[in-house]
Structure formats: C-alpha cells, structure tokens
Write a structure and sequence with these properties.
Radius of gyration: 14 Å
Order of helices and strands: HEEEEHEEHH
Shape: globular
Largest sheet: 6 strands, antiparallel
Structural class: alpha+beta
Number of strands: 6
Helix content: 25-40%
Oligomer: single chain
C-alpha cells in the first residue's frame, strides 16, 4: 500500500479523523479523540505507520515479520511500526489497521461508541 491508500483507509473507519497535534507534520488518525494510527516521517526514504496491537500477541507478530518493529517513539508494549516497503500484503496491512482501530474503539465509553456508530 502507498501512503495515500493508507490515509484513505484510516479515514474510512467510522468516526475517524486526521489531526497533526505534534510540533512536526505527523498525520495522526483518531477515533473519539484517541489515536489509533499515525504516518511516520522519521525515515524519509521509508514509509511506515504506527498501529496498536494486542499486547499479549505483539512479540509474536514482530518475530514473524521483519517489517514490523516496536513502535517508534511509542509505548512499545502496545504499538508497532509497520514498514510498507516490504513484503506485507495490502489486505494484511488493512487487517492490522482494523485491529488497531478496534482496540481503541473498544476503549471508548459506550456513549461515545454509540455516537460514532450513529445509534
């Protein structure tokens, strides 16, 4: 996936929005004011994103894929940096985005979840 495809997919999630809260131009994607992903700029020659993942399974994922590393400038217990220039399939990258979104969405209050879902 290229960066525009990733951005479009981030924004396709219910209630997702894009923000740039840092002092540098890093696009951050949130649901209910909580971050579920970002596009990295720390390596201009490599495109990568940061996503949350289940902490019980995070080490297995990192061991299985060289493109998945502990989250750059993030809590490494919960966040991964995923390099998009490797051999990861687009559907797998989308699945990782979905997982990150679900983790964050579930952490929202039931009221906020219903508001986002239009219930």
């Amino acid at each position: 996936m290229n960066i525009e495809e990733v951005r479009t997919y981030f924004l396709s999630k219910s209630g997702a929005g894009e923000d740039m809260p840092f002092h540098i131009p890093v696009p951050v994607f949130k649901v209910g004011d909580k971050m579920f992903g970002l596009i990295n700029i720390h390596e201009p020659d490599r495109v990568s994103i940061n996503l949350k993942y289940d902490k019980e399974k995070i080490d297995d994922l990192r061991e299985a894929f060289v493109e998945i590393q502990p989250g750059y400038h993030m809590n490494k217990t919960h966040w991964n940096t995923i390099y998009l220039d490797g051999n990861l399939e687009d559907d797998f990258i989308k699945e990782l985005i979905d997982i990150s979104y679900r983790i964050v969405f579930k952490s929202l209050t039931k009221t906020k979840q219903k508001e986002i879902l239009g219930e």
